[in-house]
Specification:
The protein is an alpha/beta fold. It has one domain: 3-Layer(aba) Sandwich (Rossmann fold). The protein has 12 helices and 13 strands. The strands form 4 sheets. It has a 7-stranded parallel beta sheet with strand order 3-2-1-4-5-6-11, sandwiched between helices. Helix 1 packs across helix 8 and helix 1 packs across helix 12. The longest helix is centred in the first third of the chain and has 21 residues.
């Protein structure tokens, strides 16, 4: 199969592209240039792509042309302004990219031929957060207090409306939580900042050590996306789907930071910055993944402690001189060996 991934130069996009390629699929991408030092660059992901198009998804005409030319069987839309704190600094770009950019993708998919499934990636943060411990279910109200969350809720609602108003290409929505894994270089990400502090010897300040998020390894997350696309192609999936850890496997930022420092060893440490002034962010956010578990046969394969170890070991291996692509592909091979499932076996897609 040929997949078109928007946002393929980003963290999730690079892992997804490498996973798809390792399974024997053809991959094309549409995205902005990668960040310096990104996984996309270090693992030379571009060498494995059929097409590597650099385009802002706010460019509706350019996007229509690129999607039509891609020859894709399935489209996975990841491209986004994905950072909460950046959304406070630049709300206009955040809204335009995440909401109007998603509309542009939906229009481009509708205007292309041969596309059999489209998956729109939003986020766990689309839910109207009331700081409850119980995980949010797919049929619960959406909202968003910060510009990022609001923009992604807008994209989610927009997609739901599009599907009802303009039925055509089977389109679904995936909502996932915070992901970790090797090669992330985005600003204001917990593991990215912690590892930078451990490496430099300057402890990283953590602004909300008691916050709770549905953390998972990036491979568990993107395998959920593929499970959903696989079901779409079989005519067995539509609507919105959560991908996150089981209830009881949630971690506070403090617990993660302490575990990361302990595994890293030496003088690794972090600093509590919870008394500083910071923009609003939700203190508690959890998902109910029951629909994906029952309907898709998907679940997180990696317990969180193992996800953390894989992330830290990736960085230590690469910083010790190992080839980033080889380290990434070894982790992909180890992950796909955990369980035999149709969406992780390329030959079973057709």
């Amino acid at each position: 199969m040929r997949f078109l991934v928007t946002g393929h130069t980003g963290f999730k996009g690079a892992w997804l592209s490498l996973l798809l390629s390792s399974l024997g699929h053809e991959v094309s991408g549409i995205a902005l240039d990668p960040l310096p030092g990104s996984l996309f660059e270090r693992a030379r992901v571009g060498e494995l792509l059929v097409d590597d198009v650099r385009l802002d998804i706010r460019d509706a005409a350019g996007l229509r042309s690129a999607v039509a030319d891609s020859g894709a069987d399935a489209v996975i839309h990841l491209a986004a302004q994905a950072l909460v704190r950046e959304s406070y600094r630049d709300p206009r770009t955040t809204y335009e990219t995440n909401a109007i950019g998603t509309l542009n993708v939906l229009e481009a998919v509708a205007g292309a031929s041969g596309i059999e499934a489209a998956l729109i990636i939003t986020t766990d943060k689309v839910y109207r957060n009331v700081d409850r411990l119980e995980g949010y279910r797919e049929d619960e109200p959406l909202g968003g207090d910060d510009p990022y969350s609001a923009s992604k809720a807008m994209a989610d609602i927009l997609t739901q409306s599009w599907v009802k108003s303009f039925p055509g290409v089977p389109t679904a929505i995936a909502r996932a939580g915070n992901v970790i894994g090797g090669g992330d270089v985005s600003k204001d990400r917990l593991l990215v900042d912690l590892i930078a502090g451990f490496t430099s010897g300057v402890p990283n300040p953590i602004r909300r050590p008691d916050a709770v998020r549905p953390w998972q390894h990036v491979l568990d997350c993107v395998s959920g996306y593929l499970a959903l696309v696989h079901a779409q192609l079989a005519g067995n999936a539509d609507g919105a789907w959560n991908f996150g850890p089981d209830a009881g496997n949630y971690q506070t930022v403090r617990e993660i930071a302490d575990a990361a420092a302990a595994h890293w060893g030496g003088d690794a440490a972090w600093v509590d910055d919870s008394h500083g002034e910071h923009p609003h962010e939700a203190a508690l956010l959890t998902l109910d993944p029951g629909k994906a578990q029952a309907g898709l046969g998907w679940r997180n394969e990696l317990p969180f402690p193992q996800s953390l170890v894989w992330t830290l070991d990736w960085h230590r291996s690469v910083e010790s001189g190992a080839d980033p692509r080889s380290v990434t592909l070894r982790q992909i091979e180890a992950f796909t060996a955990l369980r035999s499932v149709p969406w992780l076996e390329g030959a079973q897609w057709r």
